[in-house]
Amino acid sequence: MNVKCKKCKYEWDTNSKMIMVSCPSCGYKITIREINGGNKK
Ligand SMILES: [Zn+2]
Question: 32 alpha carbon to ligand 1 midpoint, in Å?
Answer without folding.
Answer: 14
